[in-house]
Each structure stands twice: as structure tokens, then as C-alpha cells.
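I am sending you the entry underneath: sequence plus C-alpha cells. Let me know what the C-alpha cell row says about the fold:
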Amino acid sequence: MFRSFSANRARMRTRASDASALNTGTLCTPPSSRMCDDLTPRCYLSLGTAPGLCTLTNSNSCARMAFKEDRMLPTLAICAMLHPALQDQRPEIQTAALTVEAAAPGKPIDPRLYGIFFEEINNAGDGGIYAELLRNRSFEDGDTPNHWKAGDGSAIRIVGRQPATRFNRRALEVRFGGRGSVANEGYWGVAVRSGCAYDLSVQARSLRGRVAVTGRIVSEKGAELAAASLGELTDQWTDLSASLRPKATDGKARLVLEFRTAGEGLVQVDHASLFPKKTFRNRKNGLRPDLAQMLADLKPAFVRFPGGCWVEGDTMATAYRWKTTIGPLFERRTQPNLWGYQSTNGLGFHEYLQMAEDIGAEPLFVINVGMAHRDHVPMDQMDEFVQDALDAIEYANGSADSKWGALRAANGHPKPFGLRLIEIGNENGGPLYAERYRLFVEAIRARHPEVQVIANVWGGYPREPQADFIDEHYYSNPEFFFDAATKYDSYDRKGPKVYVGEYAVTQGCGQGNLIAAVAEAAFMTGMERNSDVVAMASYAPLFANVNHKGWNPDLICFDGLRAYGTPSYYVQKLFAHNRGDRSLPVRVQQPPAKPIAIRGGVGVGTWHTQAEYRALKVTVGGRTVLDDPTGATLQREGSTWSLNGALRQTGNGEGTRAVAGRRDWGDLEFSLQARKVSGDEGFLILFGVTGQNDYLWLNLGGWGNSRHAVEHATSGARRVVADRRGSIETGRWYDIRVETRGPRYRCYLDGELILEGELRDTPKVFASATKDLKTGELILKLVNGALEPVRLNVDLKGLREGPLSGSVETLTSAKPTDENSLEEPRKVAPHKTPFRANGPKFERRLPAHSVTVIRIRP
């Protein structure tokens, strides 16, 4: 998982027009507005503040009429007659064109293109797909009895277990007089279903005579839902068990252990477990069936596990070590999770491999490379970690008579799992990573040439030895992903294949909304079109318990009884189910991109560089609005700026800025002088600044002092809109000037025009075409990220003449911000209809903010 998010985890994650707006004829879009489909997509029926008052508006007129709910459509018709301009100003649907070389051989698509990524985050495992219902079941969470409460006058505390083992060191002590009890609250409740069987198991002992033990499931309101006698305790550690079958469904029940004895009682409980008898594929210590089935329904080609930052740990002391996650459940390590909770490792290395097999996916294991977020293992101590990787492969693939293969067989899986993909580290980079990566790759290829190796991309990736795949991670806003749809068009075809191991829209996405899914789909069409570059991809994160979302959004959300897929879930499902085997050439002719007027403040900044700025001057419409010889008037970000005849950046930060001006500054000229003092790059000259995360900047000497570029940032995500080769010298003063006129910009360095262009909206129509070699079907994936429908003219070149038929699945909704929820799990979900066309040239209307998949039969 992306480290910059984890480092800031504690900080994570239209209004109505007023009367004057109505009177001046601006577009009214109050929160309660309803789209008037009868008129035009830009006409809104707005509920007024007074009962029964409606406001019908467009850009030139505003009328108010009384109405009743059941007479709304007649009212709209009257409004239209009173305001014929509404009809005259109905915007034309924009037109785009798609050409597919349907007869071309195309490029092969890796059958592993679409997989999933599982990380222990958001209680994805414990309290999620791992079916255990009790929390802190072995009392190893800490020195207090977290998630357990005493009842019937009992007193409880955590004590040392005797005898103790490496990872089983604690027990719960219960003191009571004749009758006592303890209750476990589960994961925001013990969620049980009426009539289903649950296996209760307890290991405990009595230090004062025989004690009878009863297990009960009690509802949120205190009613008994099920009860069973477990037997008696003696002074020896005793395993007790019973089956409980609740008579009602309750998502917030609790499990009660009741103790009875003739006198004073003193009991120690080593562990207690409540497990549903029915698990996915009826595996012992298995998975919650509904969540596992949602994974299987995606038809993922692989499962990347177990992380993510969970692999690294905050320090090496909390890093993931697979050997501590296999074997008897209560001998496994319970460890702190950097996502804010304790993990039991009940879902351990063996269970991950079994999960992948059970959902029909290939395992992709991520091994710790001897690096954590805050420390690392010295090179002379790396042998143990390299051996861990070799032993993990042997556990998964070795014969039943090998050391680790024999342990796998003893754990219930005699046949090898077939691990063919291993990733060396997670989000690690730099020289420390490169030297450790080499140790792993050389050892793995010498012992297991059948295993393909994946390297991290983190500020670059190690070139030697060359990896089979490199893992890129992307989290940003919708605009970034729309723009990134063409990212791989210019990638080097000779390097290692790309694995996009983590990606998602994480800004402007609500709790996982439609426009986020549409933007991800646009990006995915780019992966398909560049199947000779991108071999595999997996969205992240996979799961979130709605009671503990440490990351937002997520593919599947759930509570104890219910679950739903976000719109992104359905995009992943659509693409995986309709992957195809060959990627065909396509050309998209976009509708004209809308120009964006450049307005906003100005500023300066640096990236891993120390620099000085002076003689700052801004004119707007020929009038001087800023004249600052030293930069003293700029609002400085951070504490590493200083003033001494010039504004100087003394730190080594990334994008540290100082800004000035107003949001409405347009048609401006911004001039200044700059000198590089030291560092890796050059200067950042900001203009069009409207907020902390929304601006343009002229990046002089960026990318290791190799390029000049203009970058446009929206909601923190930057895209290059113009660039050229160039560098900045140290120690000399440069004259810099930026001019804007409407959407146009011109950038000068020492009087020379180096970059110019026009700022326009990102194209919003995207497509890919693939062929299913087994069925002969042609598969089109069409994405419209615009807020209006688009008319798409399709030309399937080389396809036979005559009628076409097949199927269409469309994902869209009334608003781009629409989301699914536990209450409305399929508010945004695909609907399927027949497809028919008269021939290989046809027209298709793409709804606003939509994803469309067409399968055309041969």
C-alpha cells in the first residue's frame, strides 16, 4: 500500500444558488435538484425553499411555478412552452469516432492481466474474510483483556500462561464467587445467522476445583439466542467444544462463557474461538462464504498477498515473516498491524495459498526484502531473509518429501500449490533496495528458475539483474487516471513487463463512487491497448470493514452480515470477464476538448533543490499587481525559506512553495529572476494557483535536471501538458517570464520562448478492442468520462458485412457521485441488454459517466 498514505493515516480519510443567482439567470443546481430528462441535460428542476415551489432554470431564464409532486411532468411541459429558449439552447450531443482494425492479428494479452491484491488492512482478514468471530481470541493483543468484559461480578485480568510458548504467552484469569462469566464483543459484534451452526472451542483450566462451563450467544438486547454445555474444567489445560445454533439473526450479538462451581472459582482461559461451521468450500479454519464468493465472482487470474505495507511493517520487529503464520493456530504470532489493530495470522501463508487455489487464481507472494518503513537489516544479516524466500517457494511447490513440502502436506495439502510469481519487497527503492534485491533474485533463479520475479518501482527500479516484471503503484484523482489512459503508449517495449500492482482513484471519490470507477476503466483500456507492456494489474485495497476503514475507497465493503461491491468492483468484474486474448489496434477521434481559462495566483518553489528568487513582478491586464524585489510578500510554506536580499529555499523538500496573488488573476505576465544554489533539479514557477492542490507550474530542470515542462495539477494530481529537454546551471541568475491569455500560456527562459500551449480539458472518451480466440467474439470496451452523453461512430474495419449481434453491459447511474452501500448494494451496477447492428459501421450512444462492454458474435 502507498506509504505516503500510511504515514498520514491519522489525518485521513453543490450548494443551492441564492436568490441573486436566480435573478441574474445563472444555472440553479441546489442539493435537491432533479434532472429534467424531458428538456435538456442542462436544465434542472430545483425544489425551492417554500413548500410547493419549483424553480426551472437555464443559463438565460428562471421561472417559478407551483406544482404538486404527481403533476410534475405536466408542469415541466408548461415550463417548456413558456420558455422556448430551453429547446433552442439544448446542447448538441458531442460526437466521437472509434476505428478498430478488427482483422488485424493484434498483440497477445497475458491471461494473468486482471488479478486481485489482498492486504491485511481495514480488517480485511481478521474481522473480515477470515471467518473467526471472536476478537483477541488467544489474549495475545496486550496486557489488558481487550474486547472481553467480565459479568456476574467476576474480575478478569491478563496473566502469563504456564507453560508459555514463543507466541502463546498470555491467558485470561477469571475470579468469581460460585458463578462468573466473560463476554467477547467480536468485531463490532458477533454476527450470527438464524439456524446456522457455530463451533465453539475453548482451552482452559481451573485452579480451584471442578468448574462447569456453558457457552451462550446473547443478542444485542440481552436475549439468549443459543446455549450449550461445554463440560468441566480440571487443573489441567482442557480442550472443550460445543455447537451453537442461534434462533435469530443478530449482527451485534456477543459470546458469553459462563462458569459455575461450588465455592470460589479461579479459571484461566488460554483461548476461545467461535467459528461458523459453513465456510467457503467447507475449509477448516476457512473463509467467510459471501466475501470469498465475491472474490471468486471476479474471476481473478492471481492473488497478490499479503501486502502492501503489511509486508514491510513500520519496523523490522513488526514486519511480516511467513514462518510465524503457519501451523497450530494458537502457536502463531499475534502481531501489531501498522493499520491500527492486532492481527492473529489465522489467515496465514498456507491459508492464502489455499484461498488462491479455491477461487481459481494463481498465488503471487510478496516477501520482505529486509526493509521496513523505519529501519532495515544489515547486509551481513540478510542470509536469513533470502532463505525465507527460498523456503516459502519450497513450502508452496516442493514435493511432499522435502522439508517444507512435507510440512505443507502435514497441514493438509499434499499436492504443490504452484507458486510461480514472487515479488521482492513492497514499495522499496534506492541503493538499499537494489543491493538486497540482487541477493534474492540470484538465489531464487539459481534454485527455482520456474519462478518469475517482480521488482518494486519506487523512484526507479533496479536494472540488474533484470526483473521479469516491475510493480508500479498509482493513487490519485479521476483526472490523473483519465490522463494516464495513454501512459503506456510511449513505454519502452524492450524493458521488463509492467505489473500495476496497486491503483485506485483515492481523491474525489466519495466512499467509492461512479466517476472513480469510470476513470479507472479509462486507465484499464490503456493497459489493454498496451498489452505488450502491461502484463498484470490489481486494484487496491480489496476489502474494508465499514466499522474500520483505514483507507478509502475499497473494492468490497462489509459488516458482519452484509457486503457490497463499489462501482469499481463492477468495473474490475466487467474487464476480467471480458478480457480477450488479443489486443486489436484502435483509434479514437475525440470530441473537441474544452479550453480552460487560466486564472489564479503565482508562486515559486523547488524540488530537492536550494534556490534563490528575486525581482518578482506580476501585471494583470497591463496593470501591475505585484512588484516585489526580494520575495518578501509571498506566503511561504514550511520553515526552510529565508530572506536576505532574495527569497531563498534552504531545504531539500519536494514541491515546497511560496505563493501570492488572487484566484481571479488572468491574462497576466509573471516575471522574476532565479538562481540555483545546489541540489538535484531547478526551479518551480507557479501560475494559475487556485488552491494548495490546484495550479500550474513551469518545472525548469525537472526529472533529475533533464527536462523543462509545464504541469497542470488538479486535486493534487499533476499531468505534463508540455515539455522539452533542458537543464539548469548552478550559480547563475536566470530571467524567467510566464504569460497567460485565456487558456493559452507562453513560458520564456532568458528571453527565449521554450514552452507554449493551450490548457484544455482531458479527453474523456476511451476504448480498447480485444478478441476472444475461443469464441471468436470481438470485445469492445468503451468509456465515457464526460458529464454529457457522447455519440460514438464505430467502424470495425475488416469485419464481414451484414447484421451483427451480441450483448451489451453498461455501468452508469444518474450522477457521477452515485455510490453503493449496505442499504443499496446495487445502486450502481451493470445492466445487460442484447446488441444488434446492421453492419460493421454503426452508431452507439455512450451515456454520461459510463462504462460499456460490447461482445459481438462472429
About this structure: The two ends are 42 Å apart (CA to CA). Residues 2-89 have pLDDT under 50 and may be disordered. Residues 115 and 300 are 4 Å apart (CA to CA).
